[in-house]
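Class prep. Protein, please:
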Amino acid sequence: MSDETEGGIFGGIFDKPHTEGIKEEHLAFNDPEEFVEEKTEVYAPADLALPFGEYFRGLRKEQRITLREFCLRSGADIGNVSKMERGLAKPPLKQHLQEKYFDALNLDIGERVEFMDRAAIAAGRIPADLVDCRADLLLMFDRLREAK
């Protein structure tokens, strides 16, 4: 097949526009002679309505890190991380554990703050750096209740 044929040497598979959304298509090269199309769910971290486990799984999959690889990098128990991703266990709240997760996921400072905030909220806690803002928090709680 020559480059002049329709779709070039790859039959047009790279001509598809990338679309944003929950499902993302990518190609896996299992055999150099064939392309296998796979679908994986990738969540945008900015989706604030996601439960923590789905948010975490999205971070991990965005970086194409398997559950096993994440656990090897972080030293976390694969069973506990799997339960957390499925919403059956709470996220880590201890700083030393979160640091291991941050490093395993290669999170930048902004992503680390978001991770800590989401972990605290998932555990029913106020993020530690905001506890001293009691007056502002009480005002915010009142406004949120009024808006319901």
